[in-house]
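Why this split exists: single-chain examples teach little about how molecules sit against one another. For that reason, every record in the complexes split bundles all components of an assembly together and asks for one structure covering all of them. Below is a record exactly as it appears in the raw files.
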Amino acid sequence: MALRDLTAAEQVAALAAGETTSLELVDAHLAAVEADDVEAFLAIDADGARDRARAIDALPERPPLAGVPIAIKDALSTRDIVTTSGSRMLEGFRPVYTATCVQRLEDAGAVVVGKTNMDEFAMGSSTENSAYKDTLNPWDLQRVPGGSSGGSAASVAQRQVPWSLGSDTGGSIRQPAALCGIVGMKPTYGAISRYGLIAFASSLDQVGPFARTVEDAALLLRHMVGRDPMDSTSLDWPGEITLPTATDLAGLRVGVVEELMGEGIEPGVRAAVDASLKAIEDLGATVVPVSLPSALSGLATYYVLAPAECSSNLARFDGIRYGHPVPADNLLDQYEMTRGQLFGPEVKRRIMLGTFALASGYYDQYYGRAQRVRTLIVREFEAAFQDVDLLASPTSPTVAFPLGDRTADPYAMYLADVCTIPVSLAGLPAISIPCGLSDGLPVGLQLAGPAFSENRLLDAAHALEKALAFDTRPPGLTT
Amino acid sequence: MIDENTVRHVARLARLRLEPEEEKVMQEELSGILEHIDAIRSMDLDGVPPTTHVLALENVLRADVPRASLPREEALREADDVVDDSFGVPRMD
């Protein structure tokens, strides 16, 4: 078996058994990273990765993730490795510190091989809003990988790395995971430090793992959760993330969100999700319909709140302290020209939308109301979890769509996140696992749970993954 | 529906210089998006408080003890224009 076919857990085991070295693993993956057939990477740190692998091989005792390569979404700061968040605004920017979550993984021995492509400042659902390039879906190179963490998802599906990090504000981990046929998880709001994550919408942003197995996602999560003094929204994690072992779902109650199974969901997606609900029942769980009446208002709510928060977070980008300003004779002109020229169309649209929603005269009608709808959504999830342990729905209403298909219609692009946004608004954990194919393209199943139910979610997803036995290898991929 | 003047006003608030053609496209696109968003304006929200935090947590404060911060040369190293150990900017008028 080729080294690139090994899961991260298998790589850890092979290293422990002395069957391979960190350098050998890193070299095998770097070859695919440097070839980059799916345009997943914005920056590659080949020399640095090899140096770190050699250093790890020389250690008397191997750290837990010793030498396993990983790719990092370009929204996460990495000291001295160019970090752009997919934007011209940060072209050539070399951060002066490394994000806490990345640092924790490096401390555990993981080797960062590069930074992955993304929609500019994580705003988008196809990675086509990257200022640099389009990333291709490994299952069909004419189609999008999803977004905004499209590069991180594609790199794992293409087996350039066994796992990667993304960030998820309204679905930016789960939706590309679904479209690329891999596992993606957004943990509970506050589970992972966001120190070093370039902020988009702070009441929603969360870092999380991509992997080809639920076990690998758990392994990565386990090394990242917990309070960080540098992020006051990070939480003391109750207990620890355990590696999933469940083989059945006996006694579990799973609710199917009715509102997310109706109009707008492609028939092929619904069929694959229905088949996995049947598999959930076969594993011993009870499946019941659940109504979240405000779930479909989530999209409109999100497209007030997220732009409002982004308009504030992105106020810091003026080209003065980092980046490169468009020079002008006075400061105001310089601000306006720099931001007008270096932000891409979607980022400008969202800053405009958010500034409008917060402006005097509109605040109560838009921002104020959206925050109240958010309360309804939070309450509906709380009520649902009185009755069921987990909620199930499609992750994305469609399979991967062709490149260029939705770029002319912003709202059509926004609809890609209709199933993932409600969970984000409620701050809850959710995982997407591949559950089947529709016309040869992967379909994702989303499972969501109450806050801090990560271990339950991972266990259920693991048991289901084994039962579904989805083959994550895209057709034609040779390793 | 959002008019041209509103687009210009909001762009000014957001410190974004839009080209005239961009203003026109922005007006159409924002109006289109707002049509969908307007659904939340007709919802019955009587007695529903706004969300402030999704998880009810206590405020987090650290001990008020001085500690080392980023060295000045590191803080300045990514800036295009450094004047007298500070960020340089054009005049304000």
